[in-house]
Amino acid sequence: MLDLKDTFLTAWSRIKPLLDANPDERLRRLARRHTARLQRPPREWCIALRANDLRLTPLHVPMVPDRAPARLLPHKVHLTAPVVRALTHPIDSGLPRAALKDFAKSLGVKPAVVLAQARAGQLELTRIKGLEHKSDRWGGIPLVSTARKPLAPGFLNRHRGPDPVWGTWWHDLAQTIPADFEQVIDRVPIAHADVTASHLPIAHTDPTVLCNPITFGQPARRGPRPPAPGPDHPRRFWGWRWLCPACHQTCRLLFYPPPVPLPQCITQYLKRHLARDDRDANDPAPTFACVKCHRVRGGLSWGSKDAWNHIVTLLSAGLLFGHEVEIPAFVRRHRKFSAPKRPQNRPSPKRHQVEQLLLQNLTYPQIAKELAISEKTVAYHTLAARKAHHVQTNDELKQRLRTTNTLTARPRSA
Asked: Which of these three, 106, 132, 151, is where a domain ends?
């Protein structure tokens, strides 16, 4: 948000006199604070805790009973302000680099996750042979560097953190938690009846229940659906889940939405024209809960048309619109799907069959019965044929098809 400071000040200095001169327009914009866009906390402004964070151990976080995590049993996690700040503060590799295992340990993930980030181009991976008299069969000791771009442990998209348009304010987001914050949350293990990965005996020994194997080039002949494995069937540990304190449903992430950090000019304007109770009406509950209980809004997507309007509305508490603030040069909008769609040169065989049956003056039900398809599919192929031949009615389509068939049937010498 610091990068947008000059842009917001320029727009606010132009709009503020208009709002002061027109009280009706000011009341209309203040009423936008009660819309769903501003009442739902955005994902970028939420502190998130992962249930499978490897740093959640009895040595770092108080747990009751303390031996339950080692035995894969349900337990209670006592969260305090220092614990949450230690688990959610940004992680940087430092200068110049950090060891792969040490960096993964500080992030609370396995080294394989950091290697996946390096393959995606998010981290810089360097291998050095003979470092500290150590050897590695992959070509050297792996060292990683974040290139001065800290990672967010609470983000599951490879810990990339919020979009760069929000600035660097999220680095100090954990400091907004009150010093006397305390909350006890249950964490439960999840087990699946996984057969292939755990080297356990097969789940269903009855050969009549199992599906027939799929052979190459032939359609699969599926049998009856196998029943669910019983409670006595051996299962495999599949990770941890939080038990939401509000709805008591299991989830991977718990969110703590702090108040939205507004610019100082917007905060002073709200204090002047709103009462204290009305200003704090949109503040979410200061507690950890799941995404559904807090009604957390999804992250920013530049593929949406109102992405910039969404940012401006949040940062101005509804007092500014997107078209009133100039988009900075460093913000580059991109398409939701950057890869262009490849045209399919292969003609549709089903549509060709529908066209030939239309030339025989058959109705939609007759064509559907002849081709063993639904009448809706026939209508779809007919509409596609009319668009391809640039006609409006079926009679014009038939005339165009007869003309096309006559031209294609002539020999080349003609």
From this structure: 151
